[in-house]
């Protein structure tokens, strides 16, 4: 009978490797391609943060540290997140440090969900959300937000809860949003909080792009309004150009965090010491670092927007994150995958088809402007030549 047992956890059959990475690989096969594919800042981690990690290594900080994170880092996270949400998270029981926001999401979902629970996922969104929910044995419920400006409105949330009936346990929100660059207005966050409270649900609020906000946009957090029902997730990958360091964190009410911390202990034991030392530096002496990045991204997005609009791409001005989500010109008849493939093959520019981000994304492409000025300039030049020649 042993031979008949499946060798692989069947939950893994339900998920496929990231479409984004697969398409990036497709694009990378062409010589001399300029890529706007990944959410990967071209900027480097600030020097003072790197030095903090080096000092930590030199001080022989090479032993197991306390689970959930170094007390000094938990303290720094608590102080920083209070500034974002207004909520006082107890460093000793309501915060845990994770291996990037990805592990934070995985850990929170695994701690919260049982087989068969339903999780509302507004789309288009980072495709990993759907897969992470599937891995837990729960079911993602996609909600197309393309007809409400790529925002999940409280009305829409009510509608879905009603339609789905029992078993809707949580909603995942990403604000500012990857791939659309939208930010949620205050009244929408307040309205969503009301609906979540009314239905005794939970929010998994991924606010990893909250430092990258442009123009007069402001960031609002669900945690401010429903701290007892929100699992707040963030990290340093985007704010401090630290994608490769792998540092994220989770904050939430103590009862939920007891399980989240347990899950995190089992998964990783604890995050690498010198990475935590770098994070302490980032969240104490590096609080102004994101401003510098923000100014650079703002300049780049203005440049790209102007050029793309002239070519017939319809796009809302991104208010956050570092992505442009542009509707492709009419002559391509909404075939975003075909358009992105031809653009890679014939014009040597890599972008990601919008349909990879779930319902509502078809007919769009995502372009990351976390690439250098030179890359963006060259990409726009090639896109212009491609679109005008067709
Ligand atoms: N959440 C969103 C919405 C993202 O776009 C990304 C990365 O692209 C992540 C989380 C992952 O962050 P990390 O690198 O900290 O795991």
From TrEMBL:
Domain of life per record: Bacteria
Alphabetized UniProt keyword annotations: Aminotransferase, Pyridoxal phosphate, Transferase
Keyword Transmembrane helix found: no
Homology family: Belongs to the class-I pyridoxal-phosphate-dependent aminotransferase family.
Protein name as catalogued: Aminotransferase
One Pfam family recorded for the sequence: Aminotran_1_2
Cofactor entry: pyridoxal 5'-phosphate
Single GO term (MF): transaminase activity
Limits of the Aminotransferase class I/classII large domain: 32-383
PROSITE patterns with a match to the protein in the record: AA_TRANSFER_CLASS_1
PANTHER family from the UniProt entry: AMINOTRANSFERASE, ASPARTATE AMINOTRANSFERASE
Record has Transferase as a keyword: yes
The protein's Enzyme Commission number: 2.6.1.-
EC main group: transferase
């Amino acid at each position: 009978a042993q031979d008949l047992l499946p060798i692989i956890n069947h939950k893994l059959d339900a998920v496929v490797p990231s479409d984004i990475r697969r398409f990036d690989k497709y694009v990378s096969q062409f010589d001399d391609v300029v890529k706007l594919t990944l959410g990967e800042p071209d900027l480097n981690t600030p020097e003072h943060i790197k030095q903090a990690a080096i000092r930590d290594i030199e001080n022989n900080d090479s032993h197991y540290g306390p689970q959930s994170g170094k007390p000094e880092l938990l303290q720094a996270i608590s102080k920083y997140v209070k500034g974002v949400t207004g909520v006082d998270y107890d460093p000793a029981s309501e915060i845990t440090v994770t291996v990037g926001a990805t592990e934070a999401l995985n850990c929170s979902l695994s701690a919260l969900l049982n087989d068969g629970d339903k999780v509302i996922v507004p789309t288009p969104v980072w495709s990993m959300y759907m897969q992470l929910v599937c891995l837990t044995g729960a079911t993602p419920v996609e909600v197309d937000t393309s007809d409400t400006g790529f925002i999940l409105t409280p009305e829409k949330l009510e509608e879905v809860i009603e339609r789905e009936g029992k078993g809707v346990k949580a909603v995942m929100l990403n604000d500012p949003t990857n791939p659309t660059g939208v930010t949620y207005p205050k009244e929408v966050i307040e309205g969503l909080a009301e609906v979540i409270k009314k239905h005794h649900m939970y929010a998994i609020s991924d606010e990893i792009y909250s430092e990258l906000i442009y123009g007069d946009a402001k960031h609002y957090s669900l945690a401010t309004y429903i701290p007892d029902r929100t699992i707040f997730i963030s990290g340093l990958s985007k704010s401090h150009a630290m994608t490769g360091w792998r540092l994220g964190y989770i904050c939430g009410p103590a009862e939920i965090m007891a399980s989240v911390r347990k899950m995190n202990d089992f998964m990783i034991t604890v995050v690498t010491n010198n990475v935590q030392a770098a994070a302490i530096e980032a969240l104490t002496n590096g609080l102004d670092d994101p401003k510098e990045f923000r100014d650079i991204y703002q300049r780049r997005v203005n440049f790209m927007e102007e050029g793309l609009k002239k070519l017939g791409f319809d796009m809302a001005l991104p208010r956050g994150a570092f992505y442009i989500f542009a509707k492709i010109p009419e002559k391509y008849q909404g075939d975003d995958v075909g358009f992105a493939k031809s653009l890679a093959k014939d014009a040597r520019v890599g972008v990601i088809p919008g349909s990879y981000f779930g319902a509502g994304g078809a007919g769009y492409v995502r372009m990351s402007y976390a690439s250098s000025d030179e890359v963006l300039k060259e990409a726009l030049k090639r896109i212009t030549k491609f679109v005008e020649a067709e």
